[in-house]
């Protein structure tokens, strides 16, 4: 038996017993927890996986947990071939515990089993000053209208940076903003943020609305002051984001990508070949800043961001307008090198300051 196993294990895991398990593992600093039909509970603690229950879960136990988290039809949805992304929150002794949740069907004894993956997240967003933004980025992210794009791979801190931005806007007495967010799932909440002049409404996709594109259309009917779209992942969403920006709204969104250049290319390539040149011009007109980031281990053992970015100034626009979809990548490389901040510059600065070691960023040095 390992040190992380429960002291007392119930004969059947009810939702209340699952909550007790989650709190226990939170206190043991588990970052990810897996609950699966026919398996022990698995916890990721400091990067290592541990079995934390003696008994393996039955299909019914996992089904009860899923329906408790998502609603009475969750199991049926998952077993029909739809994975679910959501969040889960519980309060114990006045302390809030929040999790990002994925629910997926899997093979189990010749029929559809279930797997629940829970990632620990902080309920309250971090302060913007903790994000390590340069002065240029701080200013460029105050978008009165247009699109601000935060990009990176899964787990690169995109949602955390967006949440800290939203919290910062809400805290300002002079903001006077109606903030509408559309997220999948809702990770951070703003209940504890003092909002002198602003209000925030968070909707989860697909629980509250069917898609991000539907979310943006919904926002335009609600007189928003700021729109946050969790991910511009498809053509309808990006079309809606562009429309919102062209009609004078600030829109903050994320894109999964491998750099600033790849971010722009991916957005353009969401459209058909016939549409791309026109949509390239729309993006040049509406995008205000693109930030790409990754998280690496610093010398003191904490995860910190490394970033590259491009602020779309008038000079950048002029150069981009001369590009076509065929030579866009070449033009963007030149622009990023001369008018933006390539990733290698940020890495070299952090290495010279002794914040990071070369092994932690080696894979980015050869991209």
From TrEMBL:
Q: Tell me the Pfam families matching this sequence.
A: T2SSE
Q: Which InterPro entries match?
A: P-loop_NTPase, T2SS/T4SS_dom, T4SS_GSP_E_ATPase
Domain Bacterial type II secretion system protein E per the UniProt entry, residue ranges: 25-297
The entry assigns this protein to a family as follows: Belongs to the GSP E family.
Its name, as the record gives it, is ATPase
